[in-house]
Design brief:
single chain; alpha+beta; 2 domains; six-stranded antiparallel beta sheet; 2 helices; about 25% helix; Znf_FLYWCH
């Protein structure tokens, strides 16, 4: 069974990473969550159980290559927004502090802009 990695969007909505593809929640029922590919030109979908740790319906094929390097950029954006909402620090202080922990391997990817 393949791993499902859970994280959140900048707005706090559930997202999952599976085999290098990022999915955002489309809708949720009492028994399952339905996810769609983050790339809106792609029609790939998958269904997970309500705890989002196992697939009820396996992902459908994608029309593009996986982009696992976007995950650190999404997490960076989430951290900046969360700190901005909860502290009185200046914007430049928050950005400088958060960028210090950003992985150099992902620094060339600007998926958070």
């Amino acid at each position: 069974m393949s791993q499902i990695e859970q994280f959140s969007s900048a707005k706090g909505k559930p997202m999952i990473l599976h085999e290098g593809y990022i999915y955002t929640v489309e809708r949720t029922t009492t028994t399952k969550s339905i996810f769609r590919c983050k790339n809106r030109d792609c029609k790939a979908r998958c269904h997970t159980n309500s705890s989002m740790d196992a697939f009820v319906s396996q992902p459908t094929p994608h029309c593009h290559a996986p982009q696992p390097d976007r995950v650190p950029a999404i997490q960076l954006k989430n951290e900046i927004k969360a700190r901005a909402a909860t502290t009185d620090e200046s914007t430049s202080t928050i950005i400088h502090s958060v960028l210090r922990t950003y992985p150099l391997s992902a620094a060339g990817h600007r998926g958070f802009m």
